[in-house]
Amino acid sequence: MPAFWLLVAYAVCFGIQHKTPFLQERFILLDRLLVCTYCTGFHAGWVARLLAWQAMPLPKDYPALATELITWALASAAFCYVVDAAVKWFEVNSAE
Questions:
Q1: How many folded domains does the chain comprise?
Q2: What is the rounded CA–CA span in Å between residue 48 and residue 91?
Q3: Where on the phi/psi map is residue 83: left (φ > 0), alpha (ψ -120 to 50), or beta?
Q4: Contacts (Cβ under 8 Å, ≥6 apart) of 22
Q5: Strand, helix or coil at 55?
Q6: With CB atoms 3.0 to 4.6 Å apart as the test, which of 13, 37, 38, 86 could cross-link to 44 if both were Cys?
Q7: How far apart are CA 10 and CA 30, in angstroms?
């Protein structure tokens, strides 16, 4: 089940980076965030965890909630970065 939500996080990351032209060139900080897959993947991770709360309930106490959201965000950041690097590698090295 967590692998599915990592894919959801990657989809959120990819969608925000590549399918939201209305976010581009508005704020310098936002532009820098959208260029960085690791950074966008971090934020996509906690968003995906909040989307998954019905499948895997959130903890009742706030320190555990914060820890879980940060853990999901960091795992998502790493996953999104690795998948994005692999996709870029395949795009460059694929024979046409």
A1: 1
A2: 26
A3: alpha
A4: none
A5: coil
A6: 13
A7: 18
Tokens matching residue 1:
């089940």
Residue corresponding to tokens 């532009």: 31
Contact of 7 with 44, CB cutoff 8 Å: no
Range of the domain at 9: 2-93
Tally helices (H) and strands (E) across the chain. 4, 0
How many angstroms separate the Cα of 10 from the Cα of each of 4, 14, 35?
10, 6, 14
Mean pLDDT, contiguous 10-residue spans, the chain (96 residues): 85 89 82 89 91 75 83 94 94 81
Tokens standing for residue 63: 């320190």
One-letter amino acid for residue 30 of the chain: L
The structure tokens 């950041």 sit at 77
